[in-house]
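#structure-requests
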Amino acid sequence: MTKRAFIKSFGCQMNVYDAARMADQLTAEGYEMVPTADDADLVLLNTCHIREKAAEKVYSELGRLKDGPAMIGVAGCVAQAEGDEIIKRQPRVSFVVGPQAYHKLPSLIAEAQTGAQPVETDLADDKFAALAAPTRRVIASRGVTAFLTVQEGCDKFCAFCVVPYTRGAEVSRPVAEIVEEAERLVAAGVREITLLGQNVNAYSGGDGGLAGLITVLAAIPDLKRLRFTTSHPLDMDEALIAAHRDEPKLMPYLHLPVQAGSDSILKAMNRKHTAAQYVDIIQKVRAARPDLALSGDFIVGFPGETDEDFEATLSLVETVGYASAYSFKYSPRPGTPAALRDDQVPEPVKSARLTKLQALLAAQQKAFNAGCVGRTLPILIEKAGRREGQWVGRSPYLQPVHIQDGGETIGDTVNVEITGAEGNSLFGVAVAASQKDAA
């Protein structure tokens, strides 16, 4: 009888990658991956602990699953942070596995089948060396873009963040191991790879850091595009800035979180940079790559944030100009220094500030998208559109682009004249390469 498994991921791109590698591990053990929990013998929740709501979603999902027949496993950062507490809160959970122990899934499942409820949260193992490699068929089924984790953990210890506690210290994978995985992805049809890390530009697994790794990966012939996320300003070195200028396969898109525009709040957050230093980095990258689109992260309502501090964040946003951004209300995470402060900002104040910030960021995104109209951009075709005769692809700036069918194929990079912008998406018509050079 075929064993069936369902994995549900919460949170960041790293969890999307981890879910795919766990699926590879389970497939190698004879499991068939199914699209819903109702069809599964094993349900695995791959969790995020960055914000309170993300963690509570997991417990809500566990409550919904508790009466079903499937074995339930909890993986990821909530698993790492809460361990035995998960089983205490929901006894139906069969096993708990942290983000560095996914390669132990087969043994944990076997142990759980005996009636034990194992909890594995060891941060010391090298899971990548033990994880099963996906087959070419499995990779091809996932599309022409892929995530590839190159670095995990963080040594920055921002006062609001649980990552150093749930993912551990910064660890980088060797270049040869990354190249092997990238070549396997490309051979199966992947044309764009996004390099992942909790602090990806702190990558130190080979000569030249992340810039050196990008140069090596760019030499893979059929790989058309490279991206990386998420970065810290302190690790945005001159070599990486130069890579944006010199490497055409590295897309002109940079996600560089700042979190706040007030120096006093940045200091309280333990960010170790000022607003002016952040702006200086942005200016250097834009000088290297003038068409760069910038994305960022913002937290409003950090403990002690005053109206003047918040206005400084709005001022920084106005100064920098973002093509897209993620913004959130501060959420106290247990075990972090900020959660212990007694000057927490009231929820209504946080909500009002978030609304104001998001309105400004949305206006900047709308303006950036409108500025693409009339340009011709190279678009990587990812899938067929919902409408007949339409394709959907991604611009160099990560926007989804809806294209009228002109004989393209998934995996092609097509020059597209952008004719409209609506919400988060662009619209366009494919043009012959000879008609107009891609901007």
